[in-house]
Amino acid sequence: MAKTSSVENNNRRKALVKRFAAKRQALLAIANNEANSMEERFEARLKLAELPRNSSPTRIRNRCEVTGRPRAFYRKLGLSRIALRELGNKGLIPGLVKSSW
């Protein structure tokens, strides 16, 4: 199990990203538009820099929904490899069969 503080920090980041998503997208559109003047684009970049760091989506860490583990994460299922194996062995994931040869 991951530290609860790490998981909570990540949840706070997710909330910040959601809160500032529209503003960030609008500023990025202005900053990346070649039709705008250089001053407008530069101002948009400065305003982007003033936003909280944790409002950037790249700062979110993918974590297992069950254990909070940050490594060996399967995006499709939202689980780590360890949680996936445990739930699969218990028969809680439909269609997942433990291989044996």
From TrEMBL:
Gene3D superfamilies attached to this UniProt entry: 1.10.287.1480
Domain of life: Bacteria
Residue spans crossing the bilayer: none
GO biological process, one term: translation
Pfam family, one: Ribosomal_S14
Keyword terms of this UniProt record: Ribonucleoprotein, Ribosomal protein, RNA-binding, rRNA-binding
GO cellular component terms attached to this protein's record: cytoplasm; small ribosomal subunit
GO MF terms, alphabetically ordered: rRNA binding; structural constituent of ribosome
Role: Binds 16S rRNA, required for the assembly of 30S particles and may also be responsible for determining the conformation of the 16S rRNA at the A site.
Family under the similarity heading: Belongs to the universal ribosomal protein uS14 family.
Quaternary state and interactors: Part of the 30S ribosomal subunit. Contacts proteins S3 and S10.
This protein's name: Small ribosomal subunit protein uS14
Gene that produces this protein: rpsN
